[in-house]
Design a protein that fits this description.
Helix content: 25-40%
Number of helices: 17
Distance between the termini: 13 Å
Strand content: 5-15%
CATH class of the largest domain: Alpha Beta
CATH topology of the largest domain: Rossmann fold
Radius of gyration: 24 Å
Order of helices and strands: EHEHEHEHEHHEHEHHHEEHEHEHEHEHHH
Number of strands: 13
Largest sheet: 8 strands, mixed
Shape: globular
Strand order of the largest sheet: 8-9-7-10-6-11-12-13
Length: 430
């Protein structure tokens, strides 16, 4: 959608060889009257997600406006086009027509990014391939989705699920508790259950704690020897090995866990988690890990390789202290600027309130889950998913799923995108 505007629609442009090229010194990319980034959004939540997702690339030189694509068309009819334009077409009855009208006022060299509420594959293809938009993200918008799909385009980097060669395809979500007993395993197991059964994504629940892990138990799944073999002999690991080692809970939900005696040491090879996660992401779209907070090399490797870290805490002073220490861990190459923080058992008697916790952490809590001890105990005893039903916990898990794994429009592993070069706007329209 970079060059739909700036062309007289009455005359069809000639071939690229016939069009004169502007000198580099006069390129619009270096014009001083152009804002680096201008965004037109429909609500405050979208603005917040954009600000947090793009903060590291554009600490200054950007402007936000409310009103969506209609406001953008009206303002840019009289103002200079920014280098990058983000427009929100959510709520538009005819979004493609609205983008076509925007095309008439946008300069040819602008890079256009679009946000909307359409999730159909045909719409995505029409916007990106038909109109030449650089990228499209569907609502609800999250900071992580912005960072993964919009940020590389602003930094002139290729978009990938991971900025290095750590992970190949799928998305890894690391769930860690600030302390023991805060509900980390319950949240990890139910999040995996939601992805696999309700979202119909190819999902794996990974429990790397072979001595005390209990994630498989919550989903009434057996354990096996495959995980130990994968950690001790990573050269044997491939997608087929992973698929045979993981235990099926449902058609699209598998559990990879193991159990060894407390006296048996785990001779994990160096870099074994890298090999395991790389193989798992070639087989599964979503991998949820129930990762202990202990400073063990095996678990530290997951902290670095995961695409999104989630810290689970309860409203106690000790949990706040340990959550701050976990937040201080530098993000990995494919992670957002910080981990998501989930406050579990929020209304625990005698606990801190939300305001006190946010002041102590210095950030806003990303998700708040009420205290439901009876439901949690019953689900754990029966080996059933607590998210299977209509209750506050199920709604919270659905919200966490949207925050941790933005579902790309293409029916492929999360994080994939169309990498083919795009023609200018006006060429696509003509």
């Amino acid at each position: 959608m970079a060059e739909i505007a700036g062309t007289d629609r009455r005359h069809r442009p000639g071939s690229p060889a016939e069009r004169p090229q502007a000198p580099a010194a006069e390129s619009s990319a270096v014009r001083h009257d152009r804002v680096r980034l201008m965004a037109f959004v429909s609500d405050a939540a979208t603005e917040t997600a954009l600000r947090e997702g793009l903060a590291e690339a554009l600490p200054a030189g950007w402007a936000f406006h409310h009103g969506g694509v209609q406001a953008a068309t009206k303002l840019l009819h009289k103002s200079a086009t920014p280098q990058t334009l983000i427009v929100d077409v959510s709520g538009e009855r005819e979004p493609l027509a609205a983008l076509a009208r925007l095309a008439e006022v946008v300069e040819p060299s602008a890079q256009v990014l679009v946000i909307g509420d359409h999730t159909e594959l045909a719409f995505y293809r029409e916007v990106t391939r038909g109109l030449g938009v650089a990228e499209y993200i569907a609502q609800p918008l999250t900071r992580d989705a912005v960072r993964r799909h919009f940020l590389p385009l602003l930094q002139d980097k290729p978009t990938a699920a991971v900025a290095s060669e750590n992970i190949a395809a799928g998305r890894v979500i690391c769930i860690t508790g600030a302390r023991g007993g805060v509900g980390t395993t319950t949240i990890a197991a139910n999040l995996a259950w939601h992805f696999g059964l309700q979202a119909a994504r190819h999902t794996a629940l990974l429990d790397p704690d072979l001595h005390f892990g209990s994630a498989a138990m919550l989903l009434d799944s057996p354990t096996g020897q495959g995980l130990r073999v994968a950690l001790e002999t990573p050269d044997r690991v491939d997608p087929l090995f992973v698929e045979r080692s993981a235990q099926p809970v449902a058609e699209r939900l598998h559990v990879l866990a193991g159990e060894i005696r407390l006296g048996d040491p785990l001779a994990a090879a160096e870099g074994c988690m890298h090999s395991l996660l790389r193989a798992m992401t070639q087989r599964y779209s979503i991998i949820v890990t129930d990762t202990p907070r202990m400073p063990h090399p095996l678990f530290s490797e997951i902290f670095t390789l995961a695409h999104q870290r989630v810290i689970v805490m309860v409203p106690t002073l000790a949990a706040v202290r340990d959550a701050r220490r976990l937040l201080a861990i530098p993000p990995g190459p494919g992670q957002s600027s910080r981990a998501l923080v989930v406050l579990n058992r929020a209304d625990l008697r005698g606990g801190l309130n939300q305001r006190q916790i946010e002041q102590a952490l210095g950030i806003k809590l990303d998700l708040i889950i009420p205290d439901m001890p009876r439901l949690a105990e019953t689900a754990a005893t029966m080996g059933a998913a607590l998210a299977d039903g209509r209750n506050p916990f199920a709604r919270a898990i659905a919200t966490l799923a949207r925050q941790t794994a933005y579902a790309h429009l293409l029916d492929s592993p999360l994080g994939s995108r169309i990498a083919e070069p795009r023609s200018p706007w006006w060429r696509r329209i003509w």
